[in-house]
Amino acid sequence: MAIKAIIIDDERLARNELKKLLQSHSEIEVIEEAANVDEGIEKIELLHPDLIFLDIQMPGKNGFELLAEVEKAPRVIFTTAYDEYAIKAFEVNALDYLLKPIEPKRLGEALNKLQAEMMKDNPALAANNRGPLTELDQVFVKDGERCWFVKLGEIRLFESVGNYAKVYFGTHKPLILKSLNALEERLDDRMFFRANRKHIINLRWIEKIEPYFNGGLLVDLKGGEKVEVSRRQTVKFKEMMSL
């Protein structure tokens, strides 16, 4: 069965080049194209494609704004001329990003990921219920003008800050508009643990554990952060970590 795709890019030459490359992939059927975000949203809502190839920098609104506005995002492969962009979103679990000029090999790799995901997913399930993200999944983190493309396994801590979550990886601590509860639903509970109301820790980044007051625990992470495990969660934590 053909995978229906829409190409959204303001450059006609870029759209034509991608269509030419996709001729080698008979499983992809380009059903429509759009030159800006508003046109792209209209065609997504009308045609319900399986996949969109999405440029980032476009006149007016950018590709990220399209994803924020579209009611139900299809699978996304980003295309961009800017290598500083980091392109796999929590919100839409974007499959990949392709740097322009697009190399046939990279396009093939992205489409292999698409095939693997479509085989793995039950097509009857909504796109948002794709199961937990694994440590090898790369996720999109955007804070203001800065963007990162980071493997989930490199994130050691999520911290609740109002309606946002602070994401700790390397020396960075950007904020994302995502609640800790929503994150907890997407994260693999074999690797990420809800230590308390405000923190989710990556168990593989734990350096030291010591008893804390009120029957809780104090966890030292390899990045230098200290996180309290609440008394209630300590019971669960000990059950998880015991033989």
Describe the model.
The protein has two domains: 3-120, 3-Layer(aba) Sandwich (Rossmann fold), CATH 3.40.50.2300; 138-241, OB fold (Dihydrolipoamide Acetyltransferase, E2P), CATH 2.40.50. The protein has six helices and 15 strands. The protein has helices spanning 12-22, 37-47, 63-69, 104-120, 180-186, 231-241, and strands at residues 3-8, 28-34, 51-55, 75-80, 96-99, 138-143, 146-151, 157-161, 164-168, 175-176, 192-194, 199-202, 206-211, 217-221, 226-229.
Oligomeric state of the chains in view? single chain
Q: Which consecutive residue ranges, at least 5 long each, have pLDDT under 50? A: 87-92, 122-129
- How much strand? 25-35%
CATH classification, class level of the largest domain: Alpha Beta
Any idea what the shape is?
elongated
* CATH architecture title of the largest domain: 3-Layer(aba) Sandwich
- Return the average pLDDT rounded to an integer: 85
Helix content: 25-40%
How many DSSP helices? 6
| CATH T-level topology of the largest domain | Rossmann fold
Number of domains: 2
Distance from first to last alpha carbon: 47 Å
**Structural class of the helices, strands and pairings?**
alpha/beta
For the largest beta-sheet, the strand count, sense and barrel status come to: 5 strands, parallel
β-strand number:
15
Major beta sheet, strand line-up: 2-1-3-4-5
Radius of gyration: 20 Å
Supply database-style keywords.
single chain; 243 residues; alpha/beta; OB fold (Dihydrolipoamide Acetyltransferase, E2P); 2 domains; 5-stranded parallel beta sheet; 6 helices; 30% strand
Please outline what is shown here.
With 243 residues, the chain is of the alpha/beta class. It is 26% helix and 30% strand. It has two domains: 3-120, Rossmann fold (3-Layer(aba) Sandwich), CATH 3.40.50; 138-241, OB fold (Dihydrolipoamide Acetyltransferase, E2P), CATH 2.40.50.
